């Protein structure tokens, strides 16, 4: 058998037996020519990329998604073309800017596992930084990662390596290279590119009033999308989960009132859950265009009493009615304002209610509140919110988590709106109802559990406009939920214009990042020297094996003689 | 890491074999094809072992982390086939004892090196990730060269017709140690939870002991009579 094997090998090597040699050599050649394989990673973790979008031709956020650089922390002297790791706990805008100014290759910000347990000042500070981070021109990729033990240990090792770098002597550095680990951060995904034909979806549903064709319409609007520095981390509890859950609760209550003939009022109620609210209210804009310009008959065209927009209702002890033009006396708008004031004063004295008047600034890139979209189209509109200013960081923050919404407050605010709305619709004040008449009690109670579960559902997933696909389960569920109470529920889609797009979204927002343990090149050199020395010793040892042999021989002879 | 790192590991793993081949005088005997044949026997024996293991020891899916001592022992017992294989190689070659031992051991160890370490090194040491295990693997291959030389010497001594009775017991013991060395090492690592560097050191010490004892026996056997 052995002779045969020898013959076969010989014949292969002489290449007289072509197919067999082919069989033997092709895999070997393939193996040699193949790209360096990606070995098992030291650690693999999910990272969420910072926003990347264009709005009205203006780019925002980071421009890049690909990362393949060594990790450093801010303590290191040289940050250029390194991946800078930071922890949110000791994150500051100055440090972030410093890293970018030193032309860092990338920034990875490590978020704590329990975001809701963060101290308030850190949360506040970060909320203020977020819009600035987005507005700043950032060419390198910026990623967010949620911390775990492995990632923390990588961060700590990197920090130790970065701190010791500057001060140590040459010998220390050499020793350090052998013992310490560097980390190469590599993302698996491709470069980010613009998503073409992305559809922003909005949902509409109605409750038709009793009697006649030309009934006045009250429109209730809330945008459902959330926004934060990273789309995959934007859960948008208060903004605008609270608005949507308030809208759904109002839909539920009024659908009950509208099923009985005695309580069926002479107003059409139009509910609209708009998409793209954080991108200059794109969904609302298209909806208005469709309804006002392109169709002949629509509820919005004929007789709109007022448009009520719900935004951030889940916190605090104040309520503000934002208007772009103070309502004139005698209009329904004014009546609603009066009713709100009355309900708050007589039933909820702890709530501070005020009207905030802000003119529409068309010179600005972004509209402040959703009602301005309607006001531009000369529809009487206002937004109700607990925030005094539209600039509040809470409206665009990844820190806007479920824990920041107080269900009791949300229930109370929904109740105030429902009471005031009912008083307008049924004209109760003129009919002589007392100011402290409570309508929504007992069976008609605002259900706090319902609001809570809707809030839980809304915040269980990121609802950034880039992530809510038109066939997503989120939209399907929302549509189903609305159609339980409302009639004619339908979707409206917005697609950005091909030539002159108003908004452009980019992909690669969620990626897997690998942290590979690496050593510097000098380490290889050092290792090569050690190996050469070892091989030299081995060579000498094998050459002089006779010495050992003789020694053993002498020893054995000696023991025999004894 | 880089191709350079692979070069390092490769040099560390292969050069001792090369040095041994050149300096032991094998090259002067034109023993290359003999070594290749020994390697082919290695392949054949491993194939038989694998078939046997797959037939009689289907994979133990014992709970994660549980170490199956009996199963591992049985598997180590199959390594007795290595002894038979080495004997087969040596019985096919005519020549002096040292020459036979060296040819068998070199062929055997080189075949193992090529078959079981070449691809992991190429795939692993060239990847981005740095890991000491490729350096350890290379050092381990040096240890196994010594191991196979000692083992071949033991087999040669054991199969001699003129073996005095008193040598039989120590030879059997040493052969047993050489066969079950891997099993002992594994159990040892498992029981004492050794780190990879300590385990390598222990392995080197055991192999050194085995090699020195075999050398002692060989010397007394060859020059004693």
Automatic annotation (TrEMBL), chain A:
Q: Could you tell me the keywords of this UniProt record?
A: Endoplasmic reticulum, Glycoprotein, Membrane, Signal, Transmembrane, Transmembrane helix
What is the membrane topology noted in the UniProt record heading this document?
Answer: Single-pass membrane protein
Signal sequence residues = 1-41
- The Peptidase M28 domain sits at 216-374
Question: Which Gene Ontology cellular component terms are annotated?
Answer: endoplasmic reticulum membrane; multi-pass translocon complex
An example of a GO molecular function for this protein is:
ribosome binding
Q: Where are the transmembrane segments?
A: 525-549
Q: Indicate where this protein resides in the cell.
A: Endoplasmic reticulum membrane
Q: Which domain of life is it from?
A: Eukaryota
Similarity annotation: Belongs to the nicastrin family.
Q: What does this protein do?
A: May antagonize Nodal signaling and subsequent organization of axial structures during mesodermal patterning.
What name appears for this protein in its UniProt entry? Nicalin
UniProtKB/TrEMBL annotation, chain B:
| The keyword Cell membrane is annotated on this UniProt entry | yes
PANTHER family, alphabetized: BOS COMPLEX SUBUNIT TMEM147, SMALL SEVEN TRANSMEMBRANE DOMAIN-CONTAINING PROTEIN
| Annotated transmembrane regions | 101-123, 143-159, 171-194, 200-222
Q: Where are the annotated coiled coils located?
A: none
According to its UniProt record, where is this protein mainly located?
A: membrane
List the keywords (alphabetical).
Cell membrane, Endoplasmic reticulum, Membrane, Transmembrane, Transmembrane helix
Q: Which InterPro entries match?
A: TMEM147
Similarity field: Belongs to the TMEM147 family.
The alphabetized list of GO BP terms reads: multi-pass transmembrane protein insertion into ER membrane; protein localization to nuclear inner membrane
Tell me a Gene Ontology molecular-function term this record carries.
ribosome binding
Signal peptide position in this chain?
Answer: none
Topology relative to the membrane: Multi-pass membrane protein
GO CC, alphabetical? endoplasmic reticulum membrane; multi-pass translocon complex; nuclear membrane; plasma membrane
Q: Specify the domain of life of the species encoding this protein.
A: Eukaryota
**What is the species of this protein?**
Terrapene triunguis (Three-toed box turtle)
| Localisation per UniProt entry | Cell membrane; Endoplasmic reticulum membrane
Name by which UniProt lists this protein: BOS complex subunit TMEM147
Q: Which gene encodes it?
A: TMEM147
């Amino acid at each position: 058998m052995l002779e045969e094997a020898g013959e076969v090998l010989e014949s292969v090597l002489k290449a007289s037996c072509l197919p067999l040699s082919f069989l033997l050599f092709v895999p070997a050649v393939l193996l040699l020519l193949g790209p360096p394989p990606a070995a098992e990673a030291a650690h693999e973790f999910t990272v969420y990329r910072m926003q990347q979008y264009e709005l009205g031709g203006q780019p925002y956020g980071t421009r890049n998604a690909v990362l393949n650089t060594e990790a450093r922390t801010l303590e290191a002297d040289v940050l250029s073309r390194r991946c800078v790791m930071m922890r949110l706990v000791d994150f500051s805008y100055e440090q972030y800017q410093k890293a970018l100014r030193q032309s860092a290759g990338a920034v990875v910000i490590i978020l704590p596992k329990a975001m809701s347990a963060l101290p308030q000042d850190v949360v506040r500070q970060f909320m203020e930084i977020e819009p600035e981070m987005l507005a700043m021109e950032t060419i390198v990729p910026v990623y967010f990662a949620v911390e775990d033990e492995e990632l923390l240990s990588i961060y700590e090792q990197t920090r130790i390596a970065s701190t010791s770098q500057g001060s140590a002597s040459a010998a220390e550095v050499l020793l350090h290279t052998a013992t310490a680990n560097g980390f190469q951060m590599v993302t698996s995904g491709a470069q980010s590119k613009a998503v073409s034909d992305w559809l922003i979806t909005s949902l509409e549903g109605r409750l038709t009033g009793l009697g006649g064709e030309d009934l006045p319409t009250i429109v209730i609007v809330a945008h459902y999308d959330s926004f934060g520095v990273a789309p995959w981390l934007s859960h948008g509890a208060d903004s605008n989960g609270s608005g949507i859950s308030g809208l759904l609760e109002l839909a539920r209550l009024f659908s009950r009132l509208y099923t009985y003939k005695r309580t069926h009022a002479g107003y059409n109620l139009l509910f609209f859950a708009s998409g793209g609210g954080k991108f200059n209210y794109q969904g609302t804009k298209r909806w208005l265009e469709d309804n006002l310009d392109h169709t002949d008959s629509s509820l919005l065209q004929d007789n709109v009493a007022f448009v009520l927009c719900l935004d951030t209702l889940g916190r605090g002890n104040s309520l503000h009615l934002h208007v772009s033009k103070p309502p004139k006396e005698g209009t329904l708008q004014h009546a609603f304002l009066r009713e709100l004031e009355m309900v708050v004063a007589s039933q909820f004295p702890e709530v501070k209610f005020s009207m905030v008047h802000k003119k529409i600034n068309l010179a600005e890139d972004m509209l402040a509140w959703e009602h301005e979209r309607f006001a531009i189209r000369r529809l009487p509109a206002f937004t109700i919110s607990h925030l005094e200013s539209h600039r509040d960081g809470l409206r665009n923050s990844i820190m806007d988590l479920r824990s920041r919404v107080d269900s009791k407050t949300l229930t109370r605010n929904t109740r105030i709106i429902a009471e005031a709305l009912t008083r307008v619709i049924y004209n109760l004040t003129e009919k002589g109802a007392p100011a402290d008449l409570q309508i929504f009690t007992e069976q008609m109670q605002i259900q706090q559990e319902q609001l809570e579960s809707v809030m839980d559902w809304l915040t269980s997933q990121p609802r950034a406009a880039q992530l809510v696909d038109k066939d997503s389960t989120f939209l399907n569920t929302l549509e189903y939920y609305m159609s339980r109470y409302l009639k004619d529920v339908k979707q409206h889609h917005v697609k950005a214009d091909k030539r002159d797009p108003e908004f452009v979204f980019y992909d690669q927002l969620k990626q897997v990042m690998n942290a590979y343990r690496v050593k510097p090149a000098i380490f290889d050199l050092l290792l090569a020297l050690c190996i050469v020395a070892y091989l030299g010793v081995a060579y000498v040892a094998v050459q002089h094996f006779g010495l050992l042999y003789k020694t053993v021989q002498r020893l054995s002879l000696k023991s025999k003689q004894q | 890491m880089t191709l350079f790192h692979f070069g390092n590991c490769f040099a560390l793993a292969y050069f001792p074999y090369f040095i041994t081949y050149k300096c032991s005088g094998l090259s002067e005997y034109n023993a290359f094809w003999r070594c290749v044949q020994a390697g082919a026997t290695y392949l054949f024996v491993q194939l038989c072992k694998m078939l046997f293991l797959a037939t009689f020891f289907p994979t133990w899916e014992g709970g994660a982390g549980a170490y199956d001592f009996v199963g591992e022992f049985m598997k180590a017992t199959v390594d007795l086939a290595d002894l038979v294989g080495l004997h087969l190689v040596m019985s096919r070659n005519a020549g002096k004892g040292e020459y036979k031992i060296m040819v068998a051991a070199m062929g055997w160890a080189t075949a193992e090196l090529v078959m079981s370490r070449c691809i992991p090194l190429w795939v692993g040491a060239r990847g981005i990730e740095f890991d000491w295990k490729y350096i350890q693997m290379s050092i381990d291959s040096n240890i196994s060269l010594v191991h196979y030389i000692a083992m071949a010497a033991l087999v040669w001594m054991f199969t001699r017709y003129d073996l005095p009775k008193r040598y039989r017991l120590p030879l059997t013991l040493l052969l047993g140690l050489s066969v079950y060395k891997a099993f002992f090492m594994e159990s040892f690592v498992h029981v004492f939870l050794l780190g990879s560097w300590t385990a390598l050191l222990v392995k080197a010490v055991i192999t050194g002991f085995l090699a020195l004892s075999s050398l002692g026996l060989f010397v007394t056997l060859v020059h004693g009579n």
